[in-house]
Amino acid sequence: MAKGTPKPDELSRIDYTPPQKEWMDTPVKLKPGMYCWGAKAKNLQAVGFPNARDWTPADEDWKLPENWEWTVLEGIYDRLKKYRSFQLFLDICVRCGACADKCHFYIGSGDPKNMPVLRAELLRSVYRRHFTFGGKLLGRIAGARKLTLDVLKEWWYYFFQCTECRRCSVFCPYGIDQAEITMMGRELLNLLGLNIDWIQGPVANCYKKGNHLGLEPHTIMSNIEFMLDDIESITGIRIEPSFNRKGAEILFVTPSGDLFADPGTYTCMGYLMLFHELGLDYTWSTYASEGGNFGFFTTNEMAKRLNAKIYAEAKRLGVKWILGGECGHMWRVVHQYMDTWNGPADFLEEPVSPITGTKFENAKTTKMVHIAEFTADLIRHGKLNLDPSRNDHLKVTFHDSCNTSRGMGIFEEPRYIIKNVCNNFYEMPENTIREKTFCCGSGSGLNAGENMELRMRGGLPRANAVKYVHEKYGVNMLANICAIDRAALSTLMDYWVPGVGVTGVHELVANALVMKGEKKRTTNLRGEPLPGVEEEEEEGKEEKEEQGG
Amino acid sequence: MRALFSFIVVIALVAIVFVGVKGANLEFLFGVIIPYAALATFIIGFIYRVVKWGRSPVPFHIPTTCGQQKTLPWIKDSKIENPSTTAGVIARMALEVLVFRSLFRNLKTDLREGPRLAYGSDKWLWLAGLAFHWSFLIIAFRHLRFFMQDVPVVVQWVEGLDSFLQIGAPLLYITDVIIITAVTYLFLRRVYIPQVRYISLAADYFPLFLILGIAISGVLMRYFIKVHVVGVKELAMGLVSFNPTIPEGIGVIFYIHLFLICVLFAYFPFSKLMHMGGVFLSPTRNLANNSRMVRHVNPWNYPVKVHTYEEYEEEFREKMKMAGLPVEKE
Amino acid sequence: MELKNILSAKRTAVLKKWFDVILESYPPNTAEFLRTQKDPFANPVGHTIFEGMEGIFDELLEGVDSHKASVFLDNIIRVRAIQDFTPSQAVLFVFLLKKVIEEEVGEELRKEGLSEELTLLNSRIDKLALLAFDIYMKCREKLYELRAKELENRTFRLLKKANLVYEIQEQEAESRN
Ligand code: SF4
Ligand code: SF4
Fold first, then answer.
1. Using CA atoms, how far apart are residues A469 and A412, in angstroms rounded to an integer?
2. Cα–Cα distance between C174 and A43 in angstroms, integer?
3. How confident is residue C159, by pLDDT bands cut at 50, 70 and 90?
4. Number of Cβ pairs closer than 8 Å across A and C?
5. Is the pLDDT of residue A169 over 80?
């Protein structure tokens, strides 16, 4: 550090260029800040995962079972037979490089092994060596290599540097989806008990207690009680939601992050206020109190085991259909997997909005509706009394979450809502939104604390686009429909673009919502003075207050 | 290194035919046996690979959605980029296969503000890819005239179009120029763009050299080192009618051309070139985004161990009762 | 001021060379990407670095206003603080400017008898370097602060009210081994 000031000619002698070797000859080095702690024994045990033991990634010895190579190879064989995607994606990549610079981790870190194609080659090379004729015969020249401990560590390191965001898949001419390969890679790693605790902990919690944080039934209720107190002091209205109530028309499921973590809690207050205003006949569940699914970041089977609770609870309570809150990966799972895993949901009815009578035909077999679809429909039918000027101190932009964008395609609904509840809306540049949206950098269970550098790198492309609209239009609020985004983007903004806050869409809705019998509101849900109110008190100060988030 | 290796292999292949035909008079081997063997390998191998893919199921419904989903009637859905119907999927696949829609996406990155000029190297990949694949197809189609007694009109049209510039005698085919340019570009790109060089394998260079070899030998044969065309047709007709003959004096360049093609055919099923078949099977592209409307069935779905509500209530009953939550068992 | 004119005339060349030597600190295939991808949104790293460099260079000619220079330095260092660099590598780019200026205009300046001004310039760069260290440290501190803050957001005021903070903190401490 204390290097003084070297002379120019001294500097020219410093060799700061990393040696460029072929990637197979560059062994993996685990760098602090880039990886998460290893999964703990008790959390692996809780769900019956193999090789449960405490281990530390930084240690030489990962305490692998005997014959682990065989386990992995067998695992590959198994999955080749079960997933066409896996088999096909291993076979048909032509290494054209179209995907190479599309990954936010590559863009932010410059580590070549973060190029999606190379991330896949990490596994593909082993596949070639052990499963293809050419690879066996020609070895290295065919791009094949043996499965060794180093290779395994490399997998672990880089498969937990992929947020399964599918951006690469949009640009690949064959639709090769690295997220799919990462999922398979993580399944293989799980055969050896190699997960990260930031994922495994929530999985264990969710399995036993129904949600990632491990909130017990009474805690969930008291958490919501506190929100109700706040809502009452802001609006003068006391809301009384129900829990585990049989015979309700709708079961509401949302990620548990909204129950306890700022700023997701404000979004949750938004749901409560909206449903109250509508007089919706709905119930919360403490058993199925998690919409998110960290099991999805371990194995397909685990994801299914966690997801099963939603339908099971809907059946037990005898509801007609299910409404889902704002969440990214939850919706990937609900939209593309839930019915296949745990359906058919023939005990439910085709969802119909009790307020507008709209049939949600797009959800006719899964019977679960996205809250943005639900609310957009309400607004369209003029069922909500909205005062967007209450959000006038905000200049809003919208971040499309990866999962809902590339694994579902919900783009217009949230924008429609935002435009109806806010007067100032600005889009980020075209190639950073919608299907080309950039990840928050913390998806797929990577939103831990110990890998903060990784997250800041991965989030840089997103932050950079926000910065652009922040500087150009004075955008000061980043809206989204994902619980992980709400937490992760807050941190990301704090580092890259201070002065931009983060909000869920339904927080904006609730702030604009004029409720029947409410008192004159003076603050928004965060307890900050509303724009009009402030003007009455101190003219002209609002410029500064914009930075409120 | 990897490029050099592939280059040497292709040169060696050429040398083999040259020696074989010139030195050892193995015309029958190179003109009949190897073509049959290569074609058989291609057909069997191709089918084997596709069947193998087809045999592993598509357990989940995982289209990559690139546009607005179909939801409420007043929201315009993106019928091709995010298809919800079979027709939409067909359109999406057609765009993908015929004009390389996804590669084209790279173009958009040119949109920007500020004084700096667009770089847009990516559009070249799309363009070169398209030029290469299409001219390859047209050239293959043109070759039909060697395999049919009466050349169909369509083939004649295509030939006519392809040579509409009316340069030289014999007339210059535009596709000949395009394919050599495109393949050369694709090769240079692999060597010069460091990212692409970093990920390239010998298996990426080899087909490029092979195809370049085929194209060059073909061009040489047509425009420079004349071969006995009638003889070539006779040989080709013999092959298709399973009555092979080896006419005299065709010229070694023809055997080189033919042999490289045979190698390409035989190599095809073992290589990444199978993307030709694979692209149609890609589950992120060929499924409609209708998974909440139509249930997708996983053939190997199996029951899993779950934590039931009963177990949950068992554990928390007292706490639930205290909090005023309804319970199943008192 | 002669020096200023000479440097201004060479602005493009100096910036280009400076950019090149900075990019050498990345793997070659990455450097090429950072150099050639001109879309600021597809290439935020290269874009940010280049923009910051331009700002710093112009600052240098005018005589380094700490506040303004900090903004430009901050943009670059914020990026390098989360990439694989040791602290000295992260701020090395400032010193590299000396080398570049020396190579590009050193001789000319000496011929013109401006070596004194060159010394002045170099001391300005030193000042920038010191600033850079401070900024680097701030960025790193920020990262730690963010970790702490996330934890706080997670525990949330509601849990605090419910006196559940203790439980959560304990859990967190455990998961940090
Ligand atoms: S875009 Fe597709 S085919 Fe091209 S390198 Fe990437 S994964 Fe392979
Ligand atoms: S899925 Fe996302 S994070 Fe993973 S390789 Fe592709 S672009 Fe990168």
1. 20
2. 12
3. low
4. 144
5. yes
SS3 A368: strand
Residues 6+ apart with CB under 8 A from B269: B41, B42, B44, B45, B46, B48, B49
pLDDT of residue A349 exceeding 90, the answer is yes
Which of residues A149, A166, A195 is at a domain's end? A195
pLDDT band per the 50, 70, 90 thresholds, residue A546: very low
The whole-number pLDDT of residue C155 equals 61
Find out whether the beta carbon of A109 lies less than 6 Å from any atom of ligand 2: no
For residue B21, the distance in angstroms to the closest alpha carbon of chain A comes to 28
| Of residues A546, A526, A527, A525, the one with CA closest to residue A535 | A546
Q: Answer whether B49 touches A (CB < 8 Å).
A: yes
Cα A14-A17-A19 angle, rounded to 5 deg? 120
Same domain, A349 and A394: yes
Of A150-164, A200-214, A413-427, B116-130, the poorest mean pLDDT is in B116-130
CATH H superfamily, domain B2-322: Transmembrane di-heme cytochromes, Chain C (1.20.950.20)
d(CA A137, CA A107): 36
Is A447 in contact with A368 (CB distance < 8 Å)?
no
Which helix (H) or strand (E) is B185 found in, with range?
helix B174-192
Q: Does residue A105 line the site of ligand 2, with CB under 6 A?
A: yes
Q: Which amino acid is at B54?
A: G
Please tell me the pTM assigned to this model. Answer: 0.88
Domain stop point among A144, A160, A195: A195
Show the domain range for A446: 201-512
C149 C-beta neighbours (distance < 10 Å), count:
15
Range B135-159 burial, b when 16+ CB lie within 10 A, else e: bbebbeebeebbeeeeeeeebeebb
Chain-chain contact of B194 with C29 (C-beta, under 8 angstroms): yes
Q: State the complex-level ipTM.
A: 0.90
Task: Out of A84, A171, A335, name the one closest to residue B292 (CB).
Answer: A335
Chain C neighbours among B 160-199 (CB < 8 Å)? 193-195, 197-198
What is the Cα–Cα distance from B213 to B220, expressed in whole angstroms?
A: 10
Please count the structural domains in chain A.
2
Q: What is the pLDDT of residues B45-86, one digit of tens each?
A: 999 999 999 999 999 999 999 999 999 999 999 999 999 999
Residues A221 and A127 reside in one and the same domain = no
| Tokens representing residue B224 in the block | 């420079």
Please write the tens of the pLDDT for every residue from A377-428. 999 999 999 999 999 999 999 999 999 999 999 999 999 999 999 999 999 9
Q: How far apart are CA A232 and CA A229, in angstroms?
A: 5
Ligand 1 pocket check for A99: Cβ under 6 Å: yes
Residue of C nearest to A196 (CA): C175
Q: How far is A507 from chain B (nearest CA, A)?
A: 22
- The phi, psi pair for A23, rounded to 5°, reads -65, -30
pLDDT tens digits for range C71-87: 888 989 998 888 888 88
Task: Give yes or no for a contact between A446 and A97, defined as CB atoms under 8 angstroms apart.
Answer: no
Cβ of A396 closer than 6 Å to ligand 1, yes or no, is no
Mutate to test the pocket of ligand 1, among A23, A94, A170 (most ligand atoms within 8 A of CB): A94
Same domain, yes or no: A420 and A491:
yes
Q: How many domains in chain C?
A: 1
Stretches where chain B sits below pLDDT 70 are: 107-122
Judge whether A356 and A377 are in contact, CB under 8 Å: yes
Query: Mean pLDDT lowest for which of A192-201, A236-245, B11-20, B105-114?
Result: B105-114
**How would DSSP label each residue in A98-161?**
TTGGG-HHHHHH--GGGSHHHHHHHHHHHHHHHH-HHHHHHGGGGT-----HHHHHHHHHHHTT
